[in-house]
Each structure stands twice: as structure tokens, then as C-alpha cells.
Description:
single chain, five-stranded mixed sheet, alpha/beta, globular
Amino acid sequence: MISTGDFTHPAWFKELQDKLEPDGKGLFRLKNPPNEPALPGIKPRSADIRFCLSTEISSVYTYGGKTRKNHNLVYAPDFSSAGWINKKISRFGNLAADGRPTISLSSRDLLETVLEAPGRQTHLVPAHAWTPWFSTLGSKGGYDSVDECFRDLSPHIFALETGLSSDPAMNWRWSQLDRFTMLSSSDAHSLQKLGREANLFETELGYEALFEAIKMQKGFLGTYEFFPEEGKYSYDGHRNCGVCLSPAEAIAINNICPQCGKQLTVGVMQRVERLADRTEPVRPLQAASFKYIIPLAEILSEIHETGVESKKVMTAYGEAINMFGNEFDLLQAVPINDIHRFNPLLAEAIRRMRDGEVIRQAGYDGVFGKISLFEGKPSLSSTNSHKQMNLF
């Protein structure tokens, strides 16, 4: 199942209406599915792909004497509900602008609008909840709690999106967040990055069933996550000066850039450290687990020592998908011995990823981090001393 994204944009909303048809359970199918593979070299496979109407909305407004900038995800089961929301919020911003729409409506008032939509089956989830500039809990434009942001309507918030620079374990360090289900979405700005994070379900394929699973955490199996250091707001820093600092290093200099004397952009790890009330993660009893993944193209790029979009990587990607069926199964489900018979070096790379034996170079201030699987030239004999196990 894939979220449509941007149902608020008039042209895209019309495209969705033209190309999708309801499946009778609050999701949608393509009216005329293509017969060709999505990528050259990939064998076509039959797939019953469903779509969920969704959008990401940027709220920029003043509250409590401070400018707030929050991104929120909104979901709807039908075009009628989505169109109703579009009409209501169009008074507060230009929905036809490229990218996610920016509106002057607060997160709390946006949630009120969503809750009032016909059918009362529309939902709001705070997007990438920790990133500095545009999130509910971010260091620059956010709040110090979910309740402060949504106020009297905060009981209607049942989930948070972790974002690329955070994972569920980081959120489990703050007891105030124990009541929320941790979701992970791609936030993909290109087709190649679709599915770089994902939510896992074992439930009926229907809108109501999916959100019931998220709310009750029954049938919600957890998430696939980036290693958080790969996100572009993991550490603290100043991109213009090339300064990247760990939370401890940044705190020691009062979050002031040592090169230019301006304020550093405080990243997710320091922000979590500030708000957390636990020194270690404590997984809530009802919470699902999670696993780290590295996009297959990135793994193959490191193995072949060439660009992610190079012909060599794309050829190797097609061969691997044709052999194992899909990327998620290859990354997490296929036995390592089976992968070894196909490609020993790929098998070793995926084993290291699954075991958390990775080299982490943290992102900062809008610069993506880098997760590596090998030291030096990739080989079966190369060692990795940066092991960090995922205990959740």
C-alpha cells in the first residue's frame, strides 16, 4: 500500500480522481494498471497495489510569542472527505503552490478541521516529529510537548512519524511519548526513494483496519527505519561552515558555531537528549519492534564503488530483484545463505546491515549522513569495528 501524497494540490487531486478508483474499503486501485515494469531490466510481476489518500501540510503561524513551523500528515478514506478538507484550508494558503502546501492555520486548528470532515474517518499524524525546522517537537519551530502543540485536541493524536533522523528507540527515552504508535514513512521526493522507510501490517487491507491497527497496536508489526545518523538532522552543526558536532560537543560550546559565532542548528539527537526523562530506551509493553534497513541501491553503490544511479548499480539492482522478488524481502527476510549463493559480497553486506555492524557518519544541518558497511575497499575479509546491535 502506498500513500498518494499531496491530495491538497488541485492538479494532483484531479489526477488522482482520474487515475484511481475506490476498492470499497477506503483505499484505491489504479483504473488501468501498467503492464510494463517500473524500472528497466525488472521482470514484470503482478501486484495488487492499493493507495491511501494522504497529504503533508506545512503550518506556519505564531503561538505563545514564537513562530511555529509544523508539518503534519493527513489521511482520508474518500475524495469527498479530502475535497472538503481542501476547501476548508484553502482560505489559509495557496494549495496550488509547488511542493507541500503552506498554510497559516495552527496544527491544533488543522487537526480540528480534519476531525470535522464528513464521515469522521480522517486522521492527522505529526510528520518527522523531531526535525529542527518544521516539526511538532523540533528545536527551531516546535514545542516542548505534543500536548502543548495540540492542546485540548491532543487526545486525538495517536501516532507520531519518527522521521529519518529518529527511530522508535530514541522516542522510547521519553515517557510522554509512550502512548503514541511510532510510524515511519518515506517522505520521498523522488520515485527511487519510495519505501526507504515503511510501516508493516498484518491485517485486512482496508483504511479502517489499518488505522485501527495503528491506534490499538494490534496487527501493526512495526517499522523499517533508516539508521538515524543517515538523516540530515541527526547531529548539531552549521552547514555553511562545515561544522558537525555531537550533542555533547555542541552543548560544551553553548551551541555556538566555533567558526562564525552564530547559533548551530540543534539536531534531533540533542533535542531528544534535552526532553527525555530516561537515560536508556524503555520499550512500551504494547509497542511494536523495528528493524534498520539501507536502500539496496546504496548497498550496491558501496559494493561497486560507483554512484547510486550508475548503470552498473542499476543493472545489479535489477538482477537482485529478479532473483529475490522485492527489495524488502531481500533486505530482511531472505536467508543469508541464499543470498550468498547469488552474491557472497552482497550477502555479507546485508548480514552486517541486519546485525547493526555499520560505520556511521552523522548528518547535520541539512546534510545527509552516510552509513557504510565496509572499511576501505569492500571485501569479504574487510573488518568493521563499529558494531552496534539493535536490541529492539
